[in-house]
Amino acid sequence: MLHAYMLAQSGIPVIYSGDEIGQENDYTYHENPKKWDDSRYLHRGDFRWDLEKKRRVKGSIQERIFDGLKELETIRAQVPVFCTDAQVWTISDFGEKDGSEGGGDTGLWRLLANEGKQV
What we know:
Radius of gyration: 17 Å
Largest sheet: 3 strands, antiparallel
Shape: globular
Order of helices and strands: HHHEEE
């Protein structure tokens, strides 16, 4: 859901190395005295090549995330309403349901995210 939200926003989407294969946070920075107090290293661990290999395994979490991102990237590239200079605004008056709207000369779109337990 967060990848779809990110790719629906205007501008250039940034996917940090490892996000495309579901790499989790790396707390080993705590072991390095030069890095232990800088939480930016939480997301900057070594790339997990073992997880990268799993993206080719049918049905694996890594395959589902990687292929899902490819599909979202294709949609973004082919649907003009998601162009990089489209206007986008956030909607946050739905209680547990938040989202965004956007568009321009090419049309409008609405993305709603259900963060609660009810639909």
